[in-house]
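Re: the request from the purification team.
They wanted to know what the chain is likely to look like in 3D before they choose a buffer screen. I agreed to run a prediction and write the result into the notebook, where they can find it.
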Amino acid sequence: WNQGPLDTYEKFMASLRPTETRPSLHFAHLLLPHSPWRYFPSSKTYAGPDESLFGLDGNTGQWSADAWPVIQAQQRYLLQAVYADRLLGGMVARLKDSGLYDRSLIVITADHGVSFQPGLPNRQITAANYPEILYVPLFVKQPFQRAPAISDRNVETVDILPTIAAVLGIRIPWPV
C-alpha cells in the first residue's frame, strides 16, 4: 500500500465516467477508517502515534484498563469514520453528476469491526465485545433501485460476490 487513501480515492473518482461500449467495473479499496487514525473529516491530517495506538498493547491487542486512552482512540476513529463518510458522499455525488448513479450497483462494506472497551481486546472476540467486532456495515444499492430497503437476513462478506452476480445476471463458474 504505497498511496494514501486520498490518492487512491482521487484516482477512483477520475475513473467514474460513462462508457459508450460496455458496462464497466469500478472498484476501490480504501483503508478507512483503519488505523492509524489521523484524518479529520475535512481530510486534513494531524500528528498522532505511528502505527501503534496509545493505550493499546501492540503485542496482545488489549486495551488499557484506563478508560481515557481508549476514549481518545475511539474519538480519533470516529473523526476518521466521518472522513470516510464524506468520501462516500463525494462518490455518490460524482455518480449522480455523471448520470451513472441510477444504473449502478454499489456495494459498501467493511472487513471487520473494532472494540473500544477498556481492558478488552480491540479485535479478538470475547463475550463482551463481539457486537462491536462482528457486525460490519453492508450497503447494497441495486441498479434502478428507487426506495431504500432493510434486510434482517444473516449475511457475510462471502455473500457479496454471489449477490453481485445475481443482481447483474452473471453466472459464477465455480461453486459459491
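For the purification team: The chain has four helices and four strands.
Please add any questions underneath this entry.
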